[in-house]
Amino acid sequence: MRAENNAIARKLFEKAVQASPKNRFSWHVWALFEANQGNTDKARKLLKIGHAVNPRDPVILQSLALLEYNCASPNVARVLFRKASQIDPRHQPVWIAWGWMEWKEGNERTARSLYQRALSVNSTNECAARCLQAWGVLEQRVGNYTAARRLLRSSLNINSQSEVTWLTWAALEEEQGDPVRAEEIRDLYFQQRIEVVDDASWVMGFLDI
Fold first, then answer.
1. Fold of domain 8-88
2. What's the rounded mean pLDDT across residues 12-18?
């Protein structure tokens, strides 16, 4: 059944790119589909075609860079990240993804520089919240707990509904031997969730009037 569904999906992707050969979204989604199926070579080919027909789009190069990194080719990935960042220096996700890769490679100083570059584009949007969260994790892992707390709180000031950020902060406090504080942080997160649900219920009730 799964093989049949995959075959149907591929036919739909083929029709989409035939109907609109320069549609970046179609090439990109098809490539991600193949990557998730373990078809790395096919995914790489599709991303390269997508880049060829959309040479000024950083998103496809970013995905290709991450694909190469997952295939244990960090140097190839760096070239692609650099090219994507040159195409559009204001595309924050490229800087964040590149920073994440450098952190995973043990290059904390480079990762910090790349995260800072992302924040220099915009320090108050959703991308900034994700960047601050990722940077906070980096500092937590290297033992800079004060910096990690500050970064995680800054992320939550932008997006107070991020479960990952709240629970990362709670885990940090547990790691530091303060389970009471960790539980307080988890309670704060769940209270935020309850307030959002209550607000949504109030709005829906108002619309029914």
1. 1.25.40
2. 96
